[in-house]
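Hi Y.,

Following your request, here is the sequence exactly as I used it, all 70 residues.
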Amino acid sequence: MNGGWIKANEIPATESFWGISATIRKQTRIRLQELVKALSQQENKPESDAQKLADFNRTGSTAGPSTNRY
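Below is the corresponding structure, written out as tokens. Let me know if you'd prefer a different format.
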């Protein structure tokens, strides 16, 4: 089953398993990073969704969830 796919798609050394869902998840994450980076590098209308995403990206949002949520 899926012998051709398995031969063509080695499991990366950093992963314990690899399948189509992992491939799609990785491609989606990369594409979203590219889109947000592009938004951060362009002029956006104030208060637009694009500007909000760009601002959020600039805050270092990858640092984790805020401890001051409520």
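The helical segments are 3-8, 20-40, 49-58.

Thanks again,
Q.
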